[in-house]
Design a protein that fits this description.
191 residues; alpha/beta; 11-stranded mixed β-sheet; 5 helices; 30% strand; globular
């Protein structure tokens, strides 16, 4: 079995890479390793426009492999009433006026807006009104992953209410939450 994880930056997944018993080998933007009979690949995609370019140029032949589970691990900002440092998995993902609906794997519904550059909440509100949508989370990569990997499972941790200082305060805690999720996933769901 193969597991492929996409993350925007190493900062989001440092604890997975360096604070687990799994030893990863780095090859450019790829980290890879094995855990029991699971091959693990972690790709660093870049943020925003760089993530869009990464996924547009990625080898989509991988997407035909039914033995592979795809994840998008990362962080997201909060637009709605979700507490910070909460793990969310959006089922509706928007970019501009395009939507991807993913299989709902949780008891809550989250609607994500993916953007390529920082915008203020007034702009998010205008986009929502135009589409008649209430977004509750925002990020800069997930839509681009979901375009190419229809069965991807986004696992995001909320870090801020559109506040850069909050993001930097919470990124380390968020990455530890992602590490804990990763370890429980390996032990419970994939073993």
């Amino acid at each position: 079995m193969d597991v492929v994880i996409f993350a925007a930056s190493e900062k989001e997944i440092n604890p997975i890479l360096y604070q687990t018993s799994i030893k990863f080998i780095k090859d450019g933007s790829l980290f890879y390793s094995e855990y029991r009979d699971i091959n693990i690949k972690i790709y660093i995609t870049g943020i925003g426009e760089r993530a869009k370019v990464f996924f547009d140029s990625f080898d989509n032949n991988l997407n035909n492999d039914s033995e592979t589970t795809y994840f998008k691990f990362g962080t997201c900002g909060v637009i709605g009433d979700i507490p910070l440092l909460t793990t969310v998995s959006p089922n509706n993902i928007y970019y501009e006026d395009k939507i991807i609906k993913l299989k709902n794997r949780s008891s809550t519904n989250h609607t994500l807006l993916t953007i390529t550059k920082s915008i203020d909440l007034n702009e998010v509100d205008l986009i929502g009104k135009k589409l008649n949508i209430n977004f509750d989370i925002i990020d800069m990569e997930t839509f681009f992953a979901a375009v190419h990997f229809k069965n991807i499972i986004p696992i995001l941790v909320t870090t801020d209410y559109n506040n850069r200082d909050e993001f930097f305060t919470n990124i380390t805690k968020a990455s530890l939450i992602l590490k804990d999720f990763f370890i429980s996933l390996l032990k419970r769901d994939l073993s």
